[in-house]
Amino acid sequence: MIRVLLVDDQPLIRSGFRALLDLEEDIEVVAEASDGQQALELAREHLPDVALIDIRMPGVDGIEATRRIAADPALAGVHVVILTNYGLDEYVFDALRAGAAGFLVKDIVPDDFLHAVRVAARGDALLAPSITRKLINRYVTTPLTTGVGTGLEELTSREREAVALVAQGLSNDEIAGRMVISPMTAKTHINRAMTKLRARDRAQLVVLAYESGLAAPRGS
User: Fold this and answer.
1) How far is Cα 33 from Cα 190, in angstroms, rounded to an integer?
2) Known SUPFAM superfamilies for this protein (predicted)?
3) Rounded to an integer, what distance in angstroms lies between the CA atom of residue 179 and that of residue 196?
4) What's the angle, vertex CA 132, arms to CA 127 and CA 137, rounded to 5?
5) Sheet holding 2-7, edge to edge
6) Neighbours of 91 (CB within 10 A)
7) Which of 5, 86, 96, 209 would suit a FRET pair with 56, their CA atoms being 20 to 30 Å apart?
8) Angle at CA 63, nearest 5°, toward 117 and 146?
9) For each of the chain's 220 residues, which pLDDT tens digit applies?
10) What is the DSSP letter of 198?
């Protein structure tokens, strides 16, 4: 059973999503919150598999709530999916930097929404390669040097190469083609890099690649 926490300051939005989720036999809404602080408290109480969090709320917003959840070792199994009305914007990239597994636009069709919840529950990132490229091209302007990428020195040369290609928005099949290896080997390199860099998922691996300087934005 996939356990879901719904977080949105608009009751009507929450009730709409809940109505969809309640129809699914493998999904259970365990709690609802109207702000980020309440979301954190309920996440600790219920330990959901997926937290669907609105990006813009009064008080503690979705980005800060995501950051606090990602920083809490007790909530390592909670996969945050950001909900937004605005599509791809700088707030989405900030949320990914904070630890979100991906994002959904609120006008998503029901079948895609339910699929996304299941994908997030598996621990996979909700970022298609095309979206990754758009994020990079639009919002990443210079490599960051925050030291977030602790463990970079532990990567093998092939793992570094794979991570750099992930940061370019390539899929596993595309990475395999570039590196002249099988898709399974490419996936293994990526998974090992995620473990060494302590990245929660592929989305955070992209962010870490830029913050560590392993990957550089176009034109830099």
Assistant:
1) 34
2) CheY-like
3) 20
4) 160
5) 27-33, 2-7, 50-54, 79-84, 102-105
6) 18
7) 209
8) 115
9) 999 999 999 999 999 999 999 999 999 999 999 999 999 999 999 999 999 999 989 889 999 999 999 999 999 899 999 998 876 667 877 888 888 888 888 888 899 899 989 988 987 777 665 566 666 666 555 554 444 445 678 899 999 999 988 887 788 888 999 999 999 999 999 999 988 888 877 877 887 887 777 776 655 4
10) T
User: Which of 174, 154, 173, 132 shows the shortest CA–CA distance to 214?
Assistant: 154
Rounded-to-integer distance, Cα 49 and Cα 26, Å:
12
The pTM for the full model equals: 0.74
What are 186's two structure tokens?
Answer: 């490419």
118: β partners: none
| Calpha distance 34→6 (Å, rounded) | 8
The DSSP line for 21-77 is HHT-TTEEEEEEESSHHHHHHHHHHH--SEEEEES--SSS-HHHHHHHHHH-GGGTT
Q: What tokens does 157 get?
A: 């040369």
